[in-house]
Amino acid sequence: xxxxxxxxxxxxxxxxxxxxxxxxxxxxxxxxxxxxxxxxxxxxxxxxxxxxxxxxxxxxxxxxxxxxxxxxxxxxxxxxxxxxxxxxxxxxxxxxxxxxxxxxxxxxxxxxxxxxxxxxxxxxxxxxxxxxxxxxxxxxxxxxxxxxxxxxxxxxxxxxxxxxxxxxxxxxxxxxxxxxxxxxxxxxxxxxxxxxxxxxxxxxxxxxxxxxxxxxxxxxxxxxxxxxxxxxxxxxxxxxxxxxxxxxxxxxxxxxxxxxxxxxxxxxxxxxxxxxxxxxxxxxxxxxxxxxxxxxxxxxxxxxxxxxxxxxxxxxxxxxxxxxxxxxxxxxxxxxxxxxxxxxxxxxxxxxxxxxxxxxxxxxxxxxxxxxx
Length: 373
Fold this sequence. Notes:
The protein folds into four domains: 2-69; 85-114, no CATH class; 152-189, no CATH class; 193-362, Rossmann fold (3-Layer(aba) Sandwich), CATH 3.40.50. It contains 13 helices and eleven strands. It has helices spanning 2-15, 21-33, 39-50, 56-69, 115-121, 129-139, 164-171, 204-219, 245-255, 265-281, 299-312, 333-338, 351-362; strands spanning 96-101, 107-112, 148-157, 161-162, 183-190, 193-198, 224-229, 233-235, 286-290, 315-319, 344-346. β9 (286-290), α11 (299-312) and β10 form a beta-alpha-beta unit.
């Protein structure tokens, strides 16, 4: 029933409804409480959970007939053509006051708010194509640098460990007298960041925005590796290395063979640990898993691999877009199995949540289950 509900949700999104993953999950839970063999139960379960506006009802009825009864293809109603334009991000200023005259000739002050503020809190499932382009301009300002660690290499310092070699060289300028002692200390450098993004069908409403987030991290110049998880593991660091976001995503899509398929989190994480993690990529790194926790494989395998990953890495961060839903509980078997081995548990449903993720990567956020972030 889950796969059928996900397929129905895809049809609704193509028709223009904002049927995100959270709504599809509620639709599935409603069907579990009702009789899925009765048309009325399936119809009203979907209408209550998948529709949010009065305008959605007509499209929902058409899509329901197509999917469940095999009638003609639904048509998206065409409204009057409108030309949408928004100012570039660089030119947008904070809320400004515009002074206008009212009927009595007195000055009336109104506030004009930037569209950027709307994008920061808007769910990715509701983004338009134009808003995804603006999202990239916001993401480039994020700093995806891992928490600092001490390196074995040393650098000059005003105090610390005595540096006899530099002190000796300095005495050549003073006739052999050590007038100034030199010191050195361990150099600090950012830890490697490893991003593992779920690109299964249940994550389809969010994977586009999260891949843009990964692209910004790859081109930032910081030590960062990018992988996608589906029925197999695919490394996409090289494909995302070009600075053009559209070309980068197109190249990554060409390398991914299991886009919007199922998810085998345990098997793919095991492949990462065996092939890459134990060989050094995950040792002391910040590992970020972007997934809703729905797993078609054995959850015991997932729990075992999460334990191995936790032992290798410095910090494990799990980003679940469903966490932003009111009253969310990690009831999915995969999510429940992975939760004991997670250091930070965040959502990733909008830009503000990605900002918090960037701070968590640097070590500024360390809450595991608090809030909906």
